[in-house]
């Protein structure tokens, strides 16, 4: 991709809050501060600050959603969707993406320095929830002077954050686009997360989380990531991409990677450990497992909201099956919410929200346009 196309060069910014005695109170009842959030912005904020869109990332994402930074070989993780005339059109909208609380790419998390000890928090970092992540984002939105987001959007865990905005701050978000997500983790989803966590904690180098400044638990985290990548793809996409192709002409009759799919998973695992913190993986997956807005918690009984919803799911996604989106849509209709839903045909599995761009972009463009026009009409 030509760096002159799209957003070009971008930079990450940092916002610190919850300083002194004004610590952030977490869902667990524990308090933490100061907190630094890493974030990026694209486009320009309108004079009335009504065109702001918050993009929430998935488990392994970060604030660098689009454009290029110094040394980048590839643009941000959702560059195909964010930029001039793309789905999240930066000629019209002011797009914000922040790294989640508990992360490891500039936002306060277990690898950050604990001001009480001047050492990394490690497991002294308190357990967090998706609600805590959104509460931290609200501080950033307030800091930017935005009273009401035009939209909160994201896929997978990003979709959970979008839904949490509705539950926590319905008056502060005009619309949400939850993609390939659920309003609670199923036993199977929790099980996959737990296997990943156990892989990390079984690595001798983990040392109960106290590995900073020493050998990192790379093998355990790599295995966790390999498990994750299997769930992100579909049987069809794996067959089309790999089938039973061998790396060499013949079997090695050893435990090396004979098959291309083995080599792919090992590459993905080894790449992941170079950019992600093992403890952050534990904390963020646990936050996803704690997430639960079912049973009326998304919109409380008797509470009217004017938030618009665009629910997007993918038919081949077996990690976050389309039925989980349908459950949310059914509930929203019982609350007479303004909801549009679409199940996109795709062979990519859960990864489709990052790869299936054309139809997804078409839906998002029209949804945002109608929401923005409605906002303008209300102000006249």
* CATH topology title of the largest domain: Rossmann fold
The largest sheet, given as strand count, sense and whether it forms a barrel, is: 8 strands, mixed
Estimate the global geometry from the Cα principal axes. Answer: globular
State the secondary-structure class. Answer: alpha/beta
Extended strand count: 14
Helical run tally: 10
**Gap between N and C termini:** 41 Å
Named at the architecture level, the CATH assignment of the largest domain is: 3-Layer(aba) Sandwich
Strand order of the largest sheet: 1-4-8-5-11-12-13-14
Classified by CATH, the class of the largest domain is Alpha Beta
The helix/strand order is: EEEEEEEEEEHEHEHHHHHEHEHH
Low-confidence runs of at least 5 consecutive residues: none
Give a quick rundown of the structure.
34% of the residues lie in helices and 16% in strands. It is an alpha/beta fold and 380 residues long.
Descriptive report:
This protein is an alpha/beta fold. The chain has two domains: 13-183 and 295-379, Rossmann fold (3-Layer(aba) Sandwich), CATH 3.40.50.1820; 189-287, Rna Polymerase Sigma Factor, Chain: A (Orthogonal Bundle), CATH 1.10.1740. The chain is built from ten helices and 14 strands. The strands form four sheets. The chain has an eight-stranded mixed β-sheet, sandwiched between helices. A two-stranded antiparallel ribbon has the order 2-3. The model has no long low-confidence stretch (mean pLDDT 96).
